[in-house]
Design goal:
By secondary structure, this protein is α/β, with parallel strands linked by helices. Strands 2-1-11-10-9-3-8-7-4-6-5 form an 11-stranded mixed sheet. Helix 4 crosses helix 5 (about 140-150). It is built from 15 helices and 11 strands. The longest helix is centred in the first third of the chain and has 19 residues, at about 110-130.
């Protein structure tokens, strides 16, 4: 560690994230782990500084804690920071590294709960592949809840990695069902069995050997949203396995993509609420506040979040935020046509105008901006 890194670590030892108070310009030392509900959201229009804020917090967290850090990177923006921290990049688009959506925790205390959550995920996956005229109904939930335990029966009896089901196993089981509604679920999963994603129809082969891991989903095209969804399930299972022996920070950009579908939004909301119970701290990054505030499931996520970072927002978004958080007209001016890095920090019940400037000739600025 260089002298600069040592000095920075000492400055942030009390709290892994800081910005400056707009009024006093004094640094605000923020420790999200002290919050009852440390999950957080970052709102910011393009160019407002939200990616900068995420990267700054990642570096601060790495230098001031021993926590794990996981990033879902839709744009391959974090590579300079990951390289600086000596982290690991997993390229899901490389055709060499795979995640099995059917992975499950075999030694989880509540297997029934684990199977239910897996049903939630698979229904969200099915929803992703169905056209707008094919809506999932309660009967589809019943069918999935019936089939999922069956497809895991052999593995749970003898939890050897070679017996972990793959999506084709569930697809074949659904095709055998008498209920005609099962055909819709099977048609949605056919893409894994015989369709465009059949090359991914295999067991997980990723080995994680680093406390900083970036999942690169930048080259997955129209399937980016799908793998962002699956990653949440993977991170949740990782934390359950660790049994809260340490904190894990999970950052997911473009999170609004996961809230378009009813099943997907419900799954995300469930994971969001559970994350804290296993030592997780989730951060969702979105451009527009209305993507969260106009979505019933996402609004429930806000109720489980004591950390909100708001950067430049449109007039309509500002009004929605004002109504939700009782933001004063002056405070609203701090997120109206402002410079990159200026905004409002909501920490628990406190609202603070802030700026997050960093001199361009510093090493930190160059790392964050890929220079």
């Amino acid at each position: 560690m260089t002298n600069k890194e040592t000095e920075f670590k000492l400055q942030t030892e009390a709290a892994p994230y800081f910005v400056a108070n707009t009024f006093s310009n004094y640094p605000l030392m923020i420790n999200r782990k002290e919050l009852p509900l440390p999950n957080g959201l970052i709102f910011g229009a393009p160019g407002s500084g939200k990616s900068f804020a995420v990267k700054r917090e990642i570096i601060n967290t790495f230098l001031s804690t021993e926590d794990d850090i996981i990033i879902c990177d839709p744009y391959a923006e974090c590579f300079p920071v990951i390289n600086y921290l000596g982290g690991q990049v997993v390229r899901l688009s490389s055709l060499e590294e795979f995640i099995n959506p059917m992975d499950i925790i075999s030694d989880y205390d509540d297997v029934e709960d684990s199977l239910t959550l897996k049903s939630d995920l698979i229904l969200a996956i099915c929803e992703f592949f169905l056209d707008s005229e094919s809506e999932l109904m309660p009967i589809h939930r019943t069918i999935m809840d019936t089939c999922v335990p069956v497809v895991y029966r052999e593995y749970l009896a003898d939890p050897h990695p070679d017996k972990m089901p793959i999506m084709e196993d569930l697809y074949n089981l659904l095709r055998k069902q008498v209920a005609p509604e099962a055909a819709l679920l099977a048609s949605a999963l056919q893409v894994f069995a015989t369709g465009a994603l059949s090359f991914l129809n295999q067991r997980t082969n990723i080995e994680i050997a680093n406390r900083v891991v970036c999942y690169d989903v930048s080259m997955l095209g129209k399937y980016t949203q799908l793998w962002m969804l699956i990653l949440q399930d993977r991170v949740w299972r990782q934390l359950k396995t660790q049994r809260a022996t340490k904190h894990t920070w999970f950052y997911c950009d473009e999170y609004h993509l996961l809230l378009d579908g009813k099943q997907s939004a419900a799954f995300c909301s469930k994971i969001w609420k559970r994350f804290r119970t296993v030592g997780g701290i989730m951060t969702a990054v979105v451009q527009s506040a209305k993507d969260i505030l106009s979505n019933e499931e996402a609004t429930q996520m806000l109720e489980c979040s004591n950390f909100i970072l708001i950067l430049n927002q449109s007039e309509a978004d500002r009004q929605m935020l004002a109504d939700r958080f009782h933001i004063s007209p002056y405070q609203l001016s701090c997120i109206a046509n402002t410079r990159a890095g200026e905004g409002l920090l909501i920490y628990g019940d406190t609202i603070i105008p802030f700026n997050d400037y960093l001199t361009k000739d510093t090493e930190m600025y160059q790392i964050i901006n890929g220079g």
